UniProtKB/TrEMBL annotation:
Pfam families: YdgH_BhsA-like. InterPro entries: BhsA/McbA_stress_biofilm_assoc (IPR051096), Dodecin-like (IPR025543), YdgH-like_sf (IPR036275), YdgH/BhsA/McbA-like_dom (IPR010854). This is DUF1471 domain-containing protein. Keywords: Signal. The keyword Coiled coil does not apply. The keyword Secreted does not apply. Residues 1-22 form the signal peptide. The lineage of its organism: Bacteria, Pseudomonadati, Pseudomonadota, Gammaproteobacteria, Enterobacterales. It comes from the Bacteria. Residues 36-90 form the YdgH/BhsA/McbA-like domain.
Length: 90
């Protein structure tokens, strides 16, 4: 039982620590005011049935993979699918 409890605690801690490193959505004004360095652009396409939060989370993950700490959504739209683009900053 102690091993099971330790495993659950370890899994929970790793989940929260991984989400702490996710890129954060900011505004264009925040990027300019803080002189963040733009390091690229990421794009994502999702089905309309998914929530806007899913789009933001997908962009955050892609920004992480690019080495970014922040992202600014610069375009979003579509009919049957939502296409979104974001500038990535560090």
């Amino acid at each position: 039982m102690k091993v099971f409890n330790a495993l659950i605690i370890t899994l929970a801690a790793s989940f929260f620590s991984l989400s702490a490193f996710a890129a954060t959505e900011i505004t264009q004004e925040q990027a300019k005011a803080n002189n963040y360095e733009k390091i690229g652009v990421v794009d994502v396409t999702k089905k309309v049935t998914q929530s806007p939060t899913d789009i933001s989370e997908a962009l955050s993950k892609l920004a992480d993979e690019k080495g970014g700490k922040y992202f600014v959504i610069i375009a979003e739209g579509g009919n049957n699918e939502v296409h979104a683009s974001a500038d990535v900053y560090k």
